[in-house]
Amino acid sequence: MRTDEPRRGADHNVMREVNRSLVLALVKEGGPVSRASIARSTTLAKPTVSAIVDELIAEGLVREIGPGSTAVSGGRPPILLEFNARSLLVVGVHIGARRTTIAIGDATGEEVARRELPTPKDQTPAVVLAQVAAEAKDAIAGAGLPGAKIAAVGAVLPGLTDFHTGICLLAPNLGWRDVPVRDLLAAALDDAPVYVHNAGQAAAVAENLEGAGERVGDLALLYTGTGLSAGVLSDGRVFHGVGGTAGEIGHNAVPGNTEPCNCGKVGCLETVASGPAIVRAARRAGLDGYDARDVTAAARAGDPVARQVIAEVGEHLGLAASWLINAYNPALVVVGGGLAAIGELLMAPLRAAAAKHALAPALRGVEIRASKLGADAEVRGAVLLALQHSETYYRVVFRA
């Protein structure tokens, strides 16, 4: 049997998918538009365009909205088409150490509903995920869209996640280990496809598309709050690593650090560069009973001890930023998570430490910015990642 013969069936299927993608993209981005206009723009044959459009209408992705203007040459006015953004929904879920946010977006990513609740404590992961699914369904019904199909779900967690298997390998601040998040959520949401990411990856996508990143493409996000992680985008794509755990910078060891970490190891960077690290440093400095917000408020009011505590944490974060700069050579480093809201009291020592430790060629041209999206970054990232993954459902080419 010859192996060099063209695979005509496969080629036909590929071309069909490409043509469908072209047609739907034109309707989605350039509508209202007519079949004839699509044929002219794509150079596809009119019967091919009509067949694709009929298929998209049958699936509810495209709808006819009535006649357009009659051409100068006369004849019947064309029937215009538009993308039906509410035909598909995406669900973004951010399960944080303290709060869980569920956002429902339409097929353009526009948010149509949101739910927030305290992250359940002392409950099994299965119970927590079942509650998340119930809240998502209730939010969809409350938005008046009970018949809309869930095209994809983005689930974001504060820990090590294997994107390829959908398993949360370890989330110390949740107490989760080896939790099949994808399978549990999919079963509770009528087998909708579920994609699992860590918080840093999701925040990086959101900041790049809608926030401080301004679509630079090569971006590293330092995500610091209850824990510490990173999200890296290379040419606009999330860098997952072979096991899906790329970006867990918080669990790199800092020489001389003996603080025990929630992950079970000792000396992790997260223990000196996070919200809990601020509390521990404040306690050592004599600021007993202060939480991270109290320390920040005192620092802003000019308290020298509180300022020093914030500066020390900023220096450790700057060391982390230098590792990202040296390892990935990004165009931009964004500092996200809860600590980013501290502002220049944290950012100034962070930038100074990054400049001190990063290699000069890698540092050249890099800007370090604070998040623009703030607390919304994780859940917006969950929605956007779900949207990008869902594009494959209706065959639009996308970049994740």
From TrEMBL:
Pfam families: ROK
Superkingdom field: Bacteria
Matching SUPFAM superfamilies: Actin-like ATPase domain (SSF53067), Winged helix' DNA-binding domain (SSF46785)
CDD domains per the UniProt record, alphabetical: ASKHA_ATPase_ROK_BsXylR-like
PANTHER family linked to this entry: BIFUNCTIONAL UDP-N-ACETYLGLUCOSAMINE 2-EPIMERASE_N-ACETYLMANNOSAMINE KINASE (PTHR18964:SF149), ROK (REPRESSOR, ORF, KINASE) FAMILY (PTHR18964)
Family the entry assigns: Belongs to the ROK (NagC/XylR) family.
Record protein name field: Transcriptional regulator
